[in-house]
Amino acid sequence: MKQLKVDAINNGTVIDHIPAGKALKVYEILSPHVKKVTTIGMNLSSKALGKKDLIKIEGKEISTQAVNRISIVAPSATLIIIRDFEVFKKTEVQIPKTITNAVSCPNIKCVTNFEDIETKFIREKSSEISLRCDYCERLFSLNEFEV
Ligand SMILES: [Zn+2]
Q1: How many Å apart are CA 75 and CA 18, to the nearest integer?
Q2: Contact 99, 131 (CB under 8 A)
Q3: Of all helices (H) and strands (E), which one includes residue 27?
Q4: In Å, what is the CA distance from 129 to each residue of 9, 125, 132, 141, 143?
Q5: β-strand partners of 24
Q6: 75/93 Cα distance (integer angstroms)
Q7: Using CB atoms within 10 A as the burial measure, which of 21, 73, 84, 139 is most buried?
Q8: Other Cβ atoms closer than 10 A to 25
Q9: Do the bridges between strand 139-141 and strand 86-92 make them parallel or antiparallel, or are there none, so unpaired?
Q10: Average pLDDT for consecutive 10-residue bins of the chain (147 residues)?
Q11: Which residues are CB-contacts of 98 (< 8 A; sequence separation ≥ 6)?
C-alpha cells in the first residue's frame, strides 16, 4: 500500500477508504461538529476498492457517535487519528453491536419516529450486516437508513 500522506495534518483525523461517491455523505455527518475540513479527496485510486474517497479533518478527533453513523455509510472506512504529525491510532470503522441514538428508524410507523426516545439498533449478521430496531423489531439493510 502506498504511504498515506498525512503531512498536512498536525492533529486531527483522516477517514480513509470511504467508498467512492460517499465522501459528501460522510462530510454531512461530520459538518455540524467540524468547523474546518482540510481535504475531501474523491475518486482516488485504491488497490482494495478500485476507487475511494478520503477526508482529512484538521484539529479534531471525531466522536464515537459520528463514527457509528459513518460506519453505516462507509463500513469499509479506516479511521486514522493524527497527533503531532504522526499516526497515533488506526482502526477499521466497524458497525458496533448496538447503535444508540445515531440514526432514525426507517420504519415510518416506528414509535421512535413519534416520541422523544433514543433509537437503538442491534447489529445482526446473516449474509450481510443488517440492523434490527429494538422498538419495532424490524430488520433493515444498511442502505435503508437515512444518514
Ligand atoms: Zn423501529
Answers
A1: 8
A2: yes
A3: helix 23-30
A4: 33, 5, 10, 7, 11
A5: none
A6: 6
A7: 73
A8: 17
A9: unpaired
A10: 57 93 91 79 88 91 87 92 93 90 94 95 86 97 89
A11: 120, 121, 122, 123, 134
Q: Where are the beta strands (DSSP E) in the chain?
A: 12-19, 37-46, 50-58, 78-83, 86-92, 98-100, 120-125, 129-133, 139-141
Angle at 24 between CA 90 and CA 106, to 5 degrees: 95
Cα–ligand 1 centroid distance for 94 (angstroms):
21
> Separation of 135 CA from ligand 1 center, angstroms?
5
CB atoms within 10 A of CB 10: 13
Q: 144 CA to middle of ligand 1, Å? A: 12
Say how far apart CA 97 and CA 124 lie, in whole Å.
8
Q: Which residues surround ligand 1, an ion (CB under 5 A)?
A: 105, 107, 110, 133, 135-136
How many angstroms does the Cα of residue 108 sit away from the middle of ligand 1?
8
